[in-house]
Amino acid sequence: MTSDETTQNEQLRGTGGDLPTVLLDQIELHVREHLRPRLEGLTDEEYFFDPSGSGRAWTIHPRTPEGEQPPTPFQGGSGAMAIDFEIPEPEPAPLTTIAWRLGHIIVGLLAMRSHDHLGGPPADYMSWDYAATATEALAQFDTEYERWITGVRSWDAEDLQVAVGEAEGPWAEHSRATLVAHLNRELIHHLAEIALLRDLWAHRG
């Protein structure tokens, strides 16, 4: 090997590139340093703010009384509050409130995955007790994010290559690393949308 080849190989070697560290650092930096601080001071008015101005945005709301027509065909939740959704999702996708987006993050991205892959408590859209206030929603987010990220921290590089299994349906053969990367992307995406909704609220006419 020539000295030039040795120098080139040395230049190709980086630090901090092991898979668990890369996946954890990516989401922890965004959530802890940027996105979670952007949620501080969230009010109930912002939590339920309809960005469409039409009153038709999907949201979390008091459960529709029996015999009355709910806003959407499916009303998830086991408590006093219900979340709107349809299967399949309509096109174009509806605008949503911060309440709806937090509900989706807390249940669909975090709590259900913690149950399926980490032995967390049972969770799904229909049985969840959705938050009636911004403070309660943020507390739910903090609990479920910590549960998920603690589980991810327990996986080493070999663990991350294990297939996710039947819980992920057609993606059953994909690795845990693929799932973690997907949830990182989804968390960053949806939390950034919430930050934008806060900006729209702050600059509303």
TrEMBL record:
Instruction: Give the species this sequence originates from.
Output: Brachybacterium avium
**What Pfam family is a match for this entry?**
DinB_2
Tree of life domain:
Bacteria
Annotated DinB-like domain residues = 31-194
Identify this protein by name. Serine/arginine repetitive matrix protein 1
